Amino acid sequence: MTADAASRAGPDPRELVASSPLSRGQIVAIAMCVLLNALDGFDVLSISFAAPGIAAQWHIDRAALGVVLSMELIGMAAGSLLLGLLCDRRGRRPTILLCLVLMALGMAGASQAGSVAILSACRLFTGLGIGGMLAATNAATAEFTNKRRHDMAVALMAAGYPLGAIIGGSIASVLLAHHGWRAVFLFGAGASLAAIPLVWFLLPETIAFLVRRNPPQALSRVNRTLVKWGHSAAEALPGPEPEDNRFPLARLFATGLRRTTFCLVVAYVAQILTFYFILKWTPKIVVDMGFNPSAAGGVLVWANVGGLAGAVTLSLLTGLVRARWLTIGSMVVSVLFVALFGRSAADLHQLSLLACVAGFFTNAGMVGLYALLAGAFPTAARGSGTGLVIGLGRGGAALSPVLAGMLFQAGSSLATVALIMGLGSIVAAGAVLMLPSARSA
């Protein structure tokens, strides 16, 4: 497009969205991303709520249970990488719809599983959808919001994860008390199916993606969204951006992004190692102290109440303090409270309190990473970059329940295991500290 044509077309729609106050339509779109991440939160933790019942019914030990607990994390690693690439090629919206279908099928299959092998396969399949969903919603939220509210919007999106665990966990506790562990997965399948029409009608494709890829009917689709968001329609779209013919993942290791990609991968892997120790093992730990599965689910709910509070607190503080320093501080403090959780007495009130505070700081660290991720990569590589970091991170996260299970099986005390697993946050804080300052601002 020539300079004169660009002038007649008016401002770049992406810049218009980035510089204008949030409209009602943008708030609805961001809220949908929060809802989808909440669904992710429940689907990931459904196996944690069901784990005590599964172990009791099938008589499997901690080491075998650790493998089952890790299967959707392996699927999430593959889903983040593969569907993150799809997100950049085909769009945020179709990727999200595909992920919902995968999640619904996987959860429905898990509810009917008759063996550890079949359950593990269903959790692996569910993980594909969960991993792709997180990459797609992180990219979409970053592109639905404006520059002023960028970090806050992404942090609130990440807050959906513990929100889903709290609401879903409360429902799961009732289901476990009356119907058994299979009902937990049936509820998750139904919730995933119910989200499909909501996404279809309420979540548009992002303007940034449409402008960059310029698919058929791109201008009319951009204008429909602009008008709904209270802006004037564009006469034309900006000219196509120069194509980068390298394989999408190769771009992330080019000179300008290599250090950023490396630091974010290390930080995500290390922080999620600590994060998932609390989320995956809390119910089993509490049951082994002599409490029933419903009470154990209640402690995990409190861990997620703390996680939600940490996410919201960090999102509000991003207007005052850089997300980088908030993230580092949260990670350092989380080590202390994860270690204290491991030394708790067999008292539900004390366990709930320590799980809540540990959840506050471990999840605040995770939310801070999502905020940094959303601003670290350009639009053309946002889905694949986020997918790579989350994918490799989830692959590392799959080691968290397995490693903890092996430590328990080897005779290590809860205090020792909690301390070892908590040290991941220190490594993560160091990696965030090494991020290039221009990229982490």
Question: How does this structure look, described?
Answer:
Residues 1-8 have low confidence and may be disordered. The protein has helices spanning 3-9, 13-19, 24-58, 62-90, 92-111, 116-144, 150-178, 182-202, 207-213, 218-228, 248-251, 258-288, 293-317, 323-342, 348-376, 379-397, 399-409, 414-422, 424-433, 437-440. With 441 residues, it is an all-alpha fold.
Mean pLDDT, as a whole number? 86
Rg, nearest Å: 21 Å
Biggest β-sheet, characterized? Answer: none
Question: Which structural class should the secondary elements be placed in?
Answer: mainly alpha
**What's the end-to-end separation, in Å?**
32 Å
Number of E-state strands: 0
Q: Order of helices and strands, N to C?
A: HHHHHHHHHHHHHHHHHHHH
Regions with little confidence, pLDDT below 50 for 5+ residues? 1-8
Describe the protein's topology.
Blueprint: H1 3-9, H2 13-19, H3 24-58, H4 62-90, H5 92-111, H6 116-144, H7 150-178, H8 182-202, H9 207-213, H10 218-228, H11 248-251, H12 258-288, H13 293-317, H14 323-342, H15 348-376, H16 379-397, H17 399-409, H18 414-422, H19 424-433, H20 437-440
Helix pairs in contact: 3-4, 3-6, 3-7, 3-8, 3-12, 3-13, 4-5, 4-6, 4-16, 4-17, 5-6, 5-8, 6-7, 6-15, 6-16, 7-8, 7-13, 7-15, 12-13, 12-15, 12-16, 12-17, 12-18, 12-19, 13-15, 14-15, 14-18, 14-19, 17-18
